[in-house]
Design brief:
Length: about 500
């Protein structure tokens, strides 16, 4: 009993003890946190009860694009399918081929349809380049069904964008602004509007499913992915945020059937707006140019260069007389940052350079010989793409002899006129040519007969003996990989060759 009463006394004393005063700065900090949480909740906008008001405001800015072009008849007429005598298909296909497939038949007029949107009440309309490609005539149909002939201001094939101009006369057009696509997050609501097939505007809603998608459409791929339905005829239409700003241009879908399955792609506004501005000012796109050929880094390449992570863009070749060459960049440098922006992966660099103002001096952080260096580069202007020459057909791999390089699975030989002719190697290329590749490290790294190893361990090699010597020295030094610089008619690249210990030779002597 005494013990029980003592416990009650202790609890009473604790309860009666005065609480320490909370410092004022703690209350201020808690209030600040509460305000931040309130602001974050306000920014994380919920789905509206209806998109009707937003759609009503934006629909007049979305237009239908229709084009016509002359399609010439093929020079080579395909053979008519064979059917049993007397088959009803025989007469049908015979009539079709006689009327449509004759080389001397009258050229046909083909049409295509897409969407676009007005960015300026003066009559400027943005769409996809593939919507108006090869068009003889371009027609823009507004939301109220009025039709206008359009002229092409400029196009950019690399980003699949085109700028058109119509004369609205006294008509007041509804224009929409570009927004900040970089601020869009996965899960944010978007509205996709198109005007396909001349039926009038169609509105679909969804969210941003992913960012920075590369679908191999061009060198500057950085698509926004959405589950908002984007169907045929919606190419070139805008994707809006809930503020009514264009944050993307609907361009492509992934679909086995041709219809929407919830995987659509849009060009982000941050990429499209500078291109559209250039098209409007100059009729073409003016892009920054560095003058290098780059490749991705894999963990093996990164380790062979002393990098802790496989991040950056590896310089495989520097163009003579280009901005990079003038700044002192060299093949084998790894570009880590460009103008203060980190190059996490190789494909980011071309877009960042392209967006950089021409003649701007920018700092470029590189990795060279195990050290970080910073050089200043004056960005040049990218010239128009040269006309590609037809390539000679590739010759099949042949066994041209050569010396086997132990532990690699390949054989190499010193270059001579016969090997140059056999593999199509020009007279200026110096190195040892790969003549045979069997199962082993060389095959795993994609080396093929006809590849020329011009450097090993950042040193030139001219004979098989020099290559073997460099390999043995790297193995003796405990290296896991040997960095090779490899050239062929299609590319110049670096390869991190694994240094497996050569198997001992067995057999009778």
């Amino acid at each position: 009993m005494h013990s029980r009463n003592a416990n009650k006394t202790v609890r009473a004393r604790v309860a009666a003890a005065p609480r320490p005063a909370v410092p004022a700065w703690i209350w201020a900090a808690l209030a600040a946190v509460a305000l931040l949480l309130q602001a974050a909740a306000a920014n994380a906008r919920e789905a509206p009860a209806s998109f009707a008001e937003l759609a009503d405001r934006l629909l007049p800015a979305v237009v239908n694009i229709s084009t016509t072009q002359t399609v010439k008849n093929p020079e080579r007429v395909p053979e008519m399918p064979q059917f049993p005598p007397g088959s009803p298909f025989e007469d049908f296909f015979k009539e079709f081929f006689e009327r449509q497939m004759r080389p001397d038949a009258t050229p046909r007029r083909a049409t295509s349809l897409g969407s676009g949107f007005v960015i300026d009440a003066a009559g400027y309309v943005v769409t996809n380049n593939h919507v108006i490609a090869d068009a003889d005539e371009i027609t823009v149909t507004l939301h109220d069904d009025t039709v206008h002939k359009a002229t092409l201001v400029g196009r950019d094939t690399k980003t699949d964008l085109a700028l058109l101009k119509i004369d609205p006369g006294r008509r007041q057009l509804t224009a929409v602004p570009f927004g900040n696509s970089d601020g869009m997050r996965v899960g944010d609501w978007v509205l996709a509007i198109g005007n396909p097939f001349g039926l009038g505007g169609t509105v679909t809603a969804g969210i941003i499913s992913a960012r920075a998608r590369d679908i191999n459409a061009g060198p500057y791929d950085d698509f926004l992915q959405t589950d908002a339905s984007i169907n045929r005829g919606n190419s070139g239409g805008p994707m809006f945020n809930l503020n009514g700003e264009v944050i993307g241009i609907n361009t492509a879908i992934f679909s086995p059937s041709g219809g929407s399955i919830g995987i659509g792609f849009a060009i982000p506004a941050s990429l499209a707006k500078p291109v559209v501005d250039d098209l409007r000012k100059f009729g073409k796109t003016r892009r920054g140019w560095l003058g290098v050929r780059i490749q991705s880094l894999d963990p093996e390449l990164a380790e062979s260069m002393g990098l802790a992570e496989a991040k950056g863009a590896l310089v495989a070749q520097v163009n003579d007389g280009g901005p990079a060459a003038k700044a002192g960049l060299k093949a084998g440098d790894v570009i880590l940052r460009f103008d203060g922006r980190e190059i996490g992966e190789m494909r980011r660099l071309p877009r960042i350079v392209a967006e950089t103002p021409i003649n701007k001096a920018v700092p470029v952080e590189i990795w060279r010989d195990g050290k970080r260096l910073t050089v200043s580069v004056m960005v040049g202007e990218m010239e128009d793409e040269p006309v590609e020459q037809a390539k000679a057909p590739e010759k099949p791999p042949v066994d041209a002899g050569g010396q086997a390089v132990a532990g690699t699975g390949m054989s190499v030989a010193t270059l001579n006129p016969a090997l140059r002719e056999r593999f199509g190697i020009d007279d200026e290329t110096k190195g040892v040519v790969v003549t045979e590749v069997k199962t082993g490290p060389a095959a795993e790294k994609g080396l093929k007969p006809g590849d020329v190893i011009i450097e090993a361990g950042n040193k030139p090699v001219r004979t098989p003996a020099e290559l073997v010597k460099t390999l043995d020295a790297a193995r003796a030094a405990g290296q896991k990989y040997l960095l090779l610089r490899v050239e062929n008619p299609q590319a110049l690249r670096y390869v991190a060759l694994p240094l497996a210990e050569p198997k001992p030779q067995t057999g009778k002597r």
